[in-house]
Design goal:
Blueprint: E1 2-5, H1 10-27, E2 35-39, E3 45-48, E4 58-60, E5 65-66, H2 82-94, H3 99-110, E6 116-117, H4 130-135, H5 144-161, H6 166-175, H7 177-182, H8 191-215
Helix pairs in contact: 2-5, 3-8, 5-6, 6-8
């Protein structure tokens, strides 16, 4: 099964392929033992767990795995490598989003798994939907740096739209901005969304406390971003 990213048919093809991919992986774990990628003539980037024939493909490490559900308890932290941590920090600084919030969203969305895929077609570390990825100028949704950049850029868009109110930002990240507006700017009464907001906020305060502990007493008086 192929996953396409980029090109005019990006949204519909990617969603259908990713949903079917998860069902295939559940039925046959061996089918997801490797990931291959290649680029079509129109610039479309294809990811597949089936060895492609007749094209020059690159074999990647890892495999597609289901993303954690919003209602799942936080999984144990998987420490990212130093380069990924640098990209996370740079994106957080670039878009003025708290680093603990970026880490919390990434932890809840993918448990820091670059090949995480949800049943709805969200992909990568920040679990971007194809339409969101395109809007955030992400050409290759499984490219770690692009996925981080797109996800943090989207958090900035939501921060601007909801005046930096974290609960509304997170609700919009999960259910979409329209859902928040539909309920007069409140967190929608969806079990999944409310569980997601609670989960990410708990992780945010955890990462924030860790950062303050590492920074020492001198950071205690700094204003916190709300």
């Amino acid at each position: 099964m192929r996953v396409r990213t980029g090109g005019a048919k990006f949204q519909s093809l990617a969603v259908r392929a990713l949903v079917l991919l998860l069902s295939l992986c559940a039925a046959s774990p061996a089918a997801a033992s490797a990931i291959y990628t290649y680029t079509l003539k129109d610039g479309t980037i294809v990811y597949t767990n089936v060895p492609p024939a007749g094209v020059k493909a690159r074999r990647l490490g890892g495999q597609f795995r289901p993303a954690p559900k919003p209602t799942d308890p936080p999984a144990p932290v998987v420490i990212s490598d130093s380069l990924v941590e640098e990209w996370i920090a740079r994106a957080a600084a670039k878009y003025n989003i708290p680093l603990p919030l970026v880490r919390a969203v990434m932890h809840a969305e993918s448990n820091f798994d670059r090949f995480a895929v949800s049943a709805k077609g969200a992909s990568g570390l920040m679990q971007l939907m194809p339409s969101t990825a395109r809007a955030m100028y992400v050409h290759d949704i499984f490219d770690v740096k692009q996925n981080i950049e797109g996800g943090v850029r989207y958090l900035r868009v939501l921060a601007n739209e909801f005046d930096g109110q974290m609960e509304k930002m997170l609700a919009a990240y999960n259910a979409g901005p329209d859902a928040v507006h539909r309920f007069d700017g409140n967190v929608p009464p969806y079990d999944e969304t409310q569980a997601y907001v609670r989960k990410v906020l708990a992780l945010y305060f955890k990462y924030k406390e860790q950062a303050q502990a590492e920074a020492g007493p001198s950071s205690a008086g700094r204003a916190s971003w709300q």
